[in-house]
TrEMBL record, chain A:
Gene3D superfamilies given in the database record: 3.30.70.20, 3.40.50.2030, Carbon monoxide dehydrogenase alpha subunit. Chain M, domain 1
Name listed for the protein in its UniProt record: Acetyl-CoA decarbonylase/synthase complex subunit alpha
GO molecular function, one term: anaerobic carbon-monoxide dehydrogenase activity
Cofactor binding remark: Binds 7 [4Fe-4S] clusters per heterotetramer. Binds 2 [Ni-4Fe-4S] clusters per heterotetramer.
Major enzyme class: oxidoreductase
Bilayer-crossing regions: none
Pfam families according to UniProt: Prismane
Cofactor(s) the record lists: [4Fe-4S] cluster; [Ni-4Fe-4S] cluster
Keyword tags: 4Fe-4S, Iron, Iron-sulfur, Metal-binding, Nickel, Oxidoreductase, Repeat
HAMAP family according to UniProt: CdhA (MF_01137)
Automatic annotation (TrEMBL), chain B:
NCBIfam families assigned: cdhB
Subunit structure: Heterotetramer of two alpha and two epsilon subunits. The ACDS complex is made up of alpha, epsilon, beta, gamma and delta subunits with a probable stoichiometry of (alpha(2)epsilon(2))(4)-beta(8)-(gamma(1)delta(1))(8).
Gene3D superfamilies per the UniProt record, alphabetical: TPP-binding domain
Family named by the database record: Belongs to the CdhB family.
Chain's gene name: cdhB
Name the UniProt record assigns to this protein: Acetyl-CoA decarbonylase/synthase complex subunit epsilon
Domain of life assignment: Archaea
Higher taxonomy: Archaea, Methanobacteriati, Methanobacteriota, Archaeoglobi, Archaeoglobales
Functional note: Part of a complex that catalyzes the reversible cleavage of acetyl-CoA, allowing autotrophic growth from CO(2). The alpha-epsilon subcomponent functions as a carbon monoxide dehydrogenase. The precise role of the epsilon subunit is unclear; it may have a stabilizing role within the alpha(2)epsilon(2) component and/or be involved in electron transfer to FAD during a potential FAD-mediated CO oxidation.
Amino acid sequence: MAFELKKGLFAIDEMRNVSIKIGKVVEEEEEWTEPMGPTPKPGILELRKWDHKLLERFEPFYAPMSDYCNLCTMGPCDLSMNKRGACGIDLKTAKARLVTIACCIGAAAHTAHARHLLDHLIEDYGEDLPIDLGGDINVEAPNIRTIIGIKPRTLGDLREALDWAEKEIVKVLHATHIGNEESFIDYESKAMHVGMADHIGMEVADIAQIVAYNLPKAEQDTPLVDTGFGIVDKSKPVIVVVGHNVMYSRPVVEYLEEQGRIDDFEIAGLCCTAHDMTRVSSKTKIFGPISYQLRVIRSGLPDVLISDEQCIRADLLEACKAVGIPLIATSDAAIRGLPDVSDWPVDKIVDALVSGKLPGVFLSDPEKVGQVAPLVAEAVFKKHGGERKYRFFETDEDLWGEINKCTQCMSCVFTCPHNLRIDQGMAHAQKTKDLSKLGYLEEQCLACGKCEQACPKNIKIINVIMASNFEKLYNKSGKTRVGRGPIQDTEVRNVGQPIVMGQIPGIIAAVGCINFPDEMQSIREILEEFLKRRYIVVTSGCHAMDIGMLKDEEGQTLFEKYPGIFDAGGLVNTGSCVSNSHISGVAMKVASIFAMRPLRGNYAEIADYILNRVGAVGFSWGPYSHKAASIATGFNRLGVPVVVGPHGAKYRRAYIGRYYKPEKWWAYDIKTRKKMNIEPAPDSLLVAVETKEEAIVQLARLALRPNDTSQGRQIKLTHYLELSQKYLGTLPDDWPLYVRSEADLPLKMKDQLLQILESDYGWKIDWDKKKILEGPIRPFDAGFNPTLVEEVYEKYAGEKPPQ
Amino acid sequence: MAVKKEDKYPAARRYQVADIQVSREATAVKPNVVVNLVKKAKHPVLVTGGQLLKDPKLVEFAVKFHEKGIPIIATGGSSKPLIEKGVKPQSAVFPLHYVTQFMLDEEWQGFDGKGSYDVVLYLGFLPYYLSRMLSALKHFSKITTISLDEFYQPHAKFSFTNLTANKEMHYQMLEEVVNNL
Ligand code: SF4
Ligand code: SF4
Ligand code: SF4
C-alpha cells in the first residue's frame, strides 16, 4: 500500500505505540539532472590522492617557531635536530600537526558560527525558508554542490552540509591526538580537508544570513558606507559591536528602526560583525578591523559595547571597565566570566549596567540585546552629558609626563610584533617636543598592548602612540562598499572566457585580517597596481575595511574609484569572513558555468580545473588568525595559491615548489593523450613575502597558468615582466620558463627577449620569421587540455592515462 | 665555536623576548669570525632583504661584499638599489621563502649551478621573517647561516649581537667584515 505523506503531525488510527519518522523529503531531488560525482561528502580518504598530488609538487616547508613540543604531559620534548618526542613524533610532523590544529580551530570557528546562526534562523523563519540569492544566481551554493553533492533549496537543507562539516572537523581533530598520524604529508592532507570544510561552514553561514536577513544578493553597486575612526557623530549615544556574528547586533538595528529612532543613535562596529551589520542596514558604520579594538575602547567613544564571538580581545572586559563602558557579551563562545542575565527583565539588566552594579552581563537572547543596548547607551550618554573622554590623556601634561618617563631601554621594541621603534619615537619627542615620530607608529601599531606589559616604567604606550597621531586618527574616515555576497552567474558567464583564456590577467583576492606589516598605504598601492592593470580584485573582511580607509592624493578610496563589478578592473567586496566562501565559490562557478564541468560531488576535477586554468591568487598582507589559516588552506586544496605578508612566515609552513625539478611539473594532456612536462605555473601554493614590491611581483607571477592561451600568456607575461622591472629593477629570473612560443612574448619587448633567449639560454631562433625553433619546455597547443587526475583523464579521454 | 665576548659588543638579546623556545642558540660573533668563516667557505653567498630599500648604508655594504667577490641573492626588492649600483644579483625575483626552500634541498645546484651554498650571510631583513627561515635551515640543513643584521637572531648558526641601540657600531662591524675579506 502506498500513502502519500504530507509534512506535519498526523495520527494513524488503531496504530498506538507506533512512531513513524519521516526523514528528509527528497521530493525535488530528481529535478537536479547533474549526475553525482565520485566524492560526495568526502571523508579523510576520498580526496587524499588529490592532496598528495599537490603536496608532491608544492612541497611543504617547515619553519618551527619552537624547537619543542609540549602538547601533552609526556613532554615537553626537544624535537630539534632530528630528535623525536616521547610519543615518537618528529619535528616536521609535529609542526604539520600544529598547522592542522590551527586549521581545525579556524574551521570550527566558522562552522560553529554557522550552526549557531542556522539553528536560530530556522527557529525564527522555519526550515522551509527558500534559498533565494537573487535572479542572477542559479548556482546558489557552489561549495555545497561540489563538496556535499546536494543542491540546497531551503534553510533546512543547509543542515545536511553543516552536519558533514562538523563530522569532518571532529575526525581531523581526532587525528591530532597524541599517537596518531606519523606522516607530515598526511597531516597536510588533513589540514586541507578541514580547510575545505571551512568553506562549507562559511558558505552555510553566509547563505543563511543573506536569505533570512535579506542582505544584498549579489548586487554590483551596493552602497558605500562610512568607515574609519572619525565616522561617528559624537553628539549621539554610540553603540559599538565587535565580533563576527550579526545575529546579536541586527536586533539593535531592527528595534531602533521599529521605534523610528535609528537616526538618534550611532551604531558602529569592529571586525566582521561591522561588515555584516552594514549589509543589514547601510545606516550603520564600520569603525575598523581587529586592531581597532583598543583604539576605540580607550578613546572612550562607545556608550555601550556588544561583543559576540571570534577575534575579540580576551581582555575586553578589563579594557571596558577601565574607561567605564558597559559590556554586553552575547555568544557562549566568549562569556567572559559575566553573570548570565538572559532571563532577567530588560529594565533590571539596563539598571545593573547603567548604575555600574555590573560592569558587564552575558545576555544570549538576541531580541533582548536589541532592547537593552540602546537603553543603556542612551542612559550612559545622558550621564556623561555627551562629554566623553575623547583623548587618550586628560591633559597634555599627562601625555608628556608619560613620554618623559621613557629611558629608551627598548624592552617594548623587543616585545612588539613589528619591533616598532617606540624608543626612538619617545627619545625624539623628549628632545624636540615633536610627536611626529611617535605619530608615525600609529598606522603600523596593532594596538596589541604587548609593549605596555613589557615597559618597566609602566608607560601607557598605546595611548601615547594614539595621542601622538590624534588629529589624524580621530578624523580618519573613508568609504567601504557594502558586502554584496555572491557573484552573479551572468558576471561569471561574461568573464569566464577571458579569465580562462587569460585576457583578464588574473583575480587577486585580498582577504583576511590586515594589521599592516609596513606603511598603511602599502595595501592601496599593491591593489591599485592590479586594478589599473585590469585584474579583478576581490576582497572581504578586515582587508575590505582597511582598503576603505586609505585615500589617494585626491582623497578618494579605491572603492570610490573602481566599480564593484566582478569584471576587469572591478573591486568586489563580498562581505565578512564568511563571505570568503563566495570567492572559492566563484572559482568553482567559472568551472561550472563557463566550462560546463559538473560540480556535484566532483571536487578533485574542479580543483584540478582551477589549478590549471583559473589565474586566481589569494593575498593576506598582515598577521592573521586561525580562521585565515584554514581559509587559505581551503583555497590551496582548491588549487588557488596564496601570497602572505612577512608575518605569514609564522604560519610555520608553506607550500613551495622547486621549479628546477622538471619531474615535478607535468600534466596529462587529454588532447594529445600524452603525459607532458609543463611550466611551473603556479610554482607555490603558499608563500610569505617580505615587502610590498615582492608582493606585487609574486601576485602577478602566480596568476600564470599552464592553460593560458598565447594571447593570455602574453598579457600575463607583459604584466609580470613590467612589474618586475618596475619593482625589482630587472627582468625576473624565471621568465623563459613560461615561454612556449614567440606568441607568448610581450609585443613591445619581443626582439629584446628573443635576443636574450638566444644568447643567454641557448634557444634556437629563426630570425627571419622571428620564430622560436628550439628551447621551450613544451610547445604551445591551442587544444592543450591538462589534468593531473587520472580519473578525469579517463573520463574525457575514454582510456587509461599514459605512463 | 666558542667566541669570547668582548665588552664593547652589546649582549646578544633576542629580537623578540618570546622567541626563546630554542634548543641551540646562535653563537654571537665579532666581525673577524665572520671573515674567517667566509674565507674558509667553498661556496658562500650573501642574501639581501627588503630593508635595503630603507637603509642606503646597507646597500653600500652589499655592494662592497659583491666587490669582494661574494655573490648576491637579492630578495625583497633589494635588487633594485643594487642593480642601480652595478651589482648583478644571482637571483632577484624569488622571495626568501623560496630561496630557503631551495637551500633545504641538498641536490640544488644554486642559482649559479655551482653546487649548494655552504655559508650563507644575511643582511637587511625584517627580523621576524628572517628568524623563521633561519629556523628551517637550522633544523633541516647543514648550511652555516650567519646573520649580519642589527637584531641578534637566535636561530642562526652565527649572528651579530644586538646592535639595534647602536647603529654606528653595526655599520662599523659591517665595515670591518668587508674590509677584511
Ligand atoms: S605530543 Fe609527543 S612530542 Fe609533544 S609533548 Fe607529548 S610526547 Fe612530547
Ligand atoms: S601595541 Fe603597538 S607598539 Fe605596542 S607592541 Fe603592540 S604593535 Fe607594538
Ligand atoms: S619599554 Fe618603556 S621605557 Fe623602555 S623604551 Fe619602551 S617605552 Fe621607553
